[in-house]
Design brief:
single chain, 263 residues, alpha+beta, five-stranded antiparallel beta sheet
Length: 263
């Protein structure tokens, strides 16, 4: 088969679908560069809160594909290394892959250089990874994490928010991301006080996740029947520590009891 030839005034240019039309092929299906949202999983909602010993990361456990609950116990909070962590929101597949690569890069840097990357350097590295995902984000597969950690040089907890272009923004008190971030962030903003201890900040995060699930269908609430509760982890000078489900169940039951007594 010979390649089709066109006169200058009849050249379809770089438009491949127009080339097919002018070559006599059947009418092609237009592709607008997007993938139906129902075809991949989304994870939401996550918050990060500073307190007197460091930072706390929290995330719900639900993943959705459109209006379908595709997973009830997805992991959304991960350690990046010993003194930092990532909470993910957005397209679950690319988000988990990004976190694994991020973990590998930090470990590789430490092995090569003999010391860990600074906390700000880690945030910059994650920012570059989010920026490289921009073409996928423009098709609906955005990844918008929260990065938090304990800065050993400063002796304090720090947290960073991002946008889909890789923009990095340090927050001084708290941050939230995901479809339920408006509701969770409002609860944290109203309940936050400087100098909070670990118990108080954990209860505040439980309440934030509870309210987000009550208002946002993509955010999963506590599920005592299945034993599913939000993931929470603290990052202090002693490192990354995940709160166990028994502790989270006790805090959730206490919150529900307070709500019942208030009514």
């Amino acid at each position: 088969m010979n390649l089709p030839l066109f006169r200058p005034h009849d050249d379809p240019g770089p438009n491949f679908t127009e080339l097919l039309r002018r070559s006599g092929f059947a009418e092609p299906v237009e592709f607008d560069g997007t993938v139906p949202v129902e075809d991949y999983r989304h994870g939401t909602t996550c918050v990060a809160i500073r307190y007197n010993d460091g930072v706390l990361l929290a995330g719900d456990r639900r993943a959705t594909s459109g209006h379908l609950i595709s997973h009830r116990a997805i992991e959304k909070v991960f350690p990046a290394d010993r003194h930092s962590g990532v909470a993910i929101a957005g397209a679950a597949g690319p988000a988990v892959e990004m976190v694994r690569l991020f973990q590998l890069q930090l470990e590789h840097y430490e092995k090569v250089e003999g010391t860990s990357l600074s906390l700000e350097g880690k945030a910059n590295q994650l920012s570059q990874m989010i920026r490289s995902n921009l073409p996928a984000a423009m098709q609906g597969m955005a990844v918008v994490p929260i990065f938090a950690g304990f800065d050993l040089a400063r002796g304090d907890g720090r947290l960073f928010e991002f946008d889909i272009t890789g923009g990095r923004y340090e927050e001084t008190e708290h941050a939230s991301t995901g479809s339920g971030s408006l509701h969770a962030g409002t609860v944290v903003k109203l309940g936050y006080r400087p100098g909070m201890d670990a118990d108080t900040v954990a209860d505040l995060a439980i309440e934030a996740m509870f309210e987000a699930a009550d208002e946002d269908s993509a955010t999963g609430g506590p599920d005592p029947v299945r034993g599913i509760y939000p993931i929470m982890a603290t990052i202090t000078e002693n490192g990354y520590t995940r709160l166990d489900d028994e502790d989270l169940a006790r805090r959730t039951e206490a919150l529900i009891a307070r709500r019942r007594s208030a009514n």
